[in-house]
# Entry
Amino acid sequence: MTNYDDKVSIVLPVYNSEKFLQESIESVLNQSYENTEIIAVNDGSTDKSLEILNQYSDRITIMSQENQGLASALMRGIGRISGKWFKWFSPDDLLFSDSIRILVEESHKVEPNTVLYSDWEIIDSNGDHVRDFHESNHNKLSKFDYNVRLLDGQLINVNTALIPSEIFKKGIVFANLDDPVAIDYDFFLRCAILNETRFHLIPKPLVKYRMHSNQLSHKSILQTLDYIETIKSQLLSSIPEEEKTKYLDALKKYQQSKSVTQKTMNLGLRMLSKSPPWLSDRILNLYLAKIRRSR
# Structure
């Protein structure tokens, strides 16, 4: 039976999110799991986001600041949380009504210091179903082998994740990076390699992830992939040399073991950097998804 003392703190970083914000908030409020707190951080929005947030002022905590970026908004909200668990949620996306309950129930089946995450459903700007996304299930891997795959690339949609709040007390935070798109990947890498955190997949869609025109262009995504290489290099340089060498050797061996199809897909991704302007973000995201699922 679920322990309903497990309070979940949900932080929504909000910046010019008026189009989908109300629907997103409603999905968070209408959870079957009741022991939650919701903290929205308005990061200097210039649209009607704050006006929409204020409609829920009796049910959520609202904080406002001048525009300082995603990491700042997240950490401002995290500074106010009181739950055993933390959940970052995007004001573009939607939770299924039982999502929090399922995450908390599953947390009782795994060891402490575990980040739980799930599959997800992709929707378009109208909220219509595009397809389901099933993450690769690495639950049976050792911590080290999972970390090697995480070093190879992102494995987790942060909006599906349930994160132990204790992690922040150990100095693992969302860093203010030059490329904010890499914030979650950097965080998960630090959890894995510096904090020996485990990761556990719930093979069921718990979030509706929205693709829409205001998201990053494919040029930005490719720049982010290059930036991620810098993040990995910096992190590995901060650990003992013997451990660093072990990870690099294992990563090289893992990448060499990939099939010809997998290697070709990665090469094709780089070729997309020279693609014409009419190539849609949706096409690129679907291509990225196929690479991710092959890890």
